[in-house]
Amino acid sequence: MENETLTVVDNRTGREYSLPIVDGAIRAPDLRQIAGPDGEGLVSFDPAYLNTASCRSAITYIDGDAGILRYRGYPIEQVAEQAGFLETAYLILEGELPTEDELQRWTDDVRRHTYVHTNIEEFMAGFRYDAHPMGMLLGAVGALSTFYPDAKHISDPENRYLQRVRLIAKLPTIAAFIFRHNRGLPYVLPRNDLGYIGNYVNMTFEIGGRHEPNPVLQRALEILFILHADHEQNCSTSAVRGVGSSHVDPFSAVSAGIAALYGPLHGGANEAVLNMLDVIGDVKNVPAFVEAVKDGSAGTRLMGFGHRVYKSYDPRATLIKQVADSVFAETGVDPKLKIALELERIALEDDYFVSRKLYPNVDFYSGLIYKAMGYPADYFTVLFALGRLPGWIAQWEEMLNDPEQKIARPRQLYTGSAERPYVPLDRR
């Protein structure tokens, strides 16, 4: 509705202020016209951005109450069922679904850039054999900026496209090298006769020049990548935008996203679910565990349930549960799956969890699926990063093209000492 305003009455002075409401929000700078206690204008205080929109974005729409997720207006259910990952990446990056010719060009461009410089292999060889996969990914992607100094020309659309292609093409190669480095296996170079997902899986699991692809598992992995491709202004995406606002190259900006995703509160949730299932140990122990969660016994936490944004069922969790069915039909049922299913059943029938809107989220089943595919728990977040990459790049480019965007520089509320004289060392 046009010309909507919010009227604020300052009860100290009786003065009224009319703040415009645009797109369902007021602009925080409009508060500056209201004098604060220090004589300067008021600022808003919102730790962790619980109710602050940091940007305008046309990429991903989320309705947390209704459990809706859309990429560029397309429901996630339709995208995950019908699209491939590169097609989804094109949609997120360009804003529209590609034509057949556009998709072919995009796929060919990515295919031509899958190889990495041999010095990257030497760089990665410098990591310890037991280095954490995310630490390796963080270092390797940051290093790419030194291999492609032209990436700093971020105002050139053609140059941005080239860096976009390089990132999408080379990250699976680096991720596969990391997987094999941790196992003492020789690196497998890309095979560009294979599709995007097939090439990555082959580089990861080929032994002695042989790998028998499983189309069911490969499609399952592709769907998981699609479901992770973007998710509004989460911690890692905000990090990419914040660092990118300094106009650094995209490799460095994406490295910031990887660093944020490395944190256990962001990218490590599915590993935490597996750890929780290990603690439960057996289906018969689920009721006691649920009661311990409700009682808060010894800090017992229910992992993989609830979400900052979704206040009903995470739509990605519904799709992942279907993926789990297809994967376990191929690999056999993991005993942990039985525990997870019983835990979900009991929790969804318990008013304690339902009233708090604690429903399974995207992480509840994804770790079980990755484990069934042969990936270790400490590698799960690398897979998350591969899926999230298109969203990071799209958000970075959208930020660059936003005329309202300036270098990120939040305000603070100072809570330290008032002015005091310096005390010489001999008098302290």
Describe the protein.
The chain is mainly alpha-helical. The chain has 2 domains: 1-47; 108-402, Citrate Synthase, domain 1, CATH 1.10.580. It is built from 17 helices and 5 strands. The chain has a 3-stranded antiparallel β-sheet. A two-stranded antiparallel sheet has the order 1-2. α9 runs antiparallel to α10 (250-262). The longest helix is centred in the middle third of the chain and has 25 residues, at 157-181. It is globular, with a radius of gyration of 24 Å.
List the helices and strands and how they pair.
Blueprint: E1 5-9, E2 16-20, E3 60-63, E4 68-71, E5 74-75, H1 76-82, H2 85-94, H3 100-111, H4 118-125, H5 133-147, H6 157-181, H7 196-205, H8 215-227, H9 235-244, H10 250-262, H11 269-280, H12 286-295, H13 315-331, H14 335-348, H15 351-355, H16 363-373, H17 380-400
Antiparallel strand pairs: 1-2, 3-4, 4-5
Helix pairs in contact: 1-8, 2-17, 3-6, 5-6, 5-10, 6-7, 6-17, 8-13, 8-17, 9-10, 9-17, 10-17, 11-16, 13-16
Give the helix tally: 17
- Rounded to the nearest angstrom, the distance between the terminal CA atoms is 63 Å
Classify the fold: give the CATH topology of the largest domain. Citrate Synthase, domain 1
Question: N-to-C SSE series?
Answer: EEEEEHHHHHHHHHHHHHHHHH
Strand order of the largest sheet: 3-4-5
Largest sheet: 3 strands, antiparallel
Radius of gyration: 24 Å
Q: Unreliable runs, pLDDT <50, ≥5 residues?
A: none
* CATH architectural category of the largest domain: Orthogonal Bundle
Task: Kindly report the name of the CATH homologous superfamily of the largest domain.
Answer: Citrate Synthase, domain 1
- State the helical fraction: 40-55%
Strand residue content: under 5%
Number of domains: 2
Q: What average pLDDT do the residues reach?
A: 92
* CATH first level of the largest domain: Mainly Alpha
Shape: globular
Class of secondary structure makeup: mainly alpha
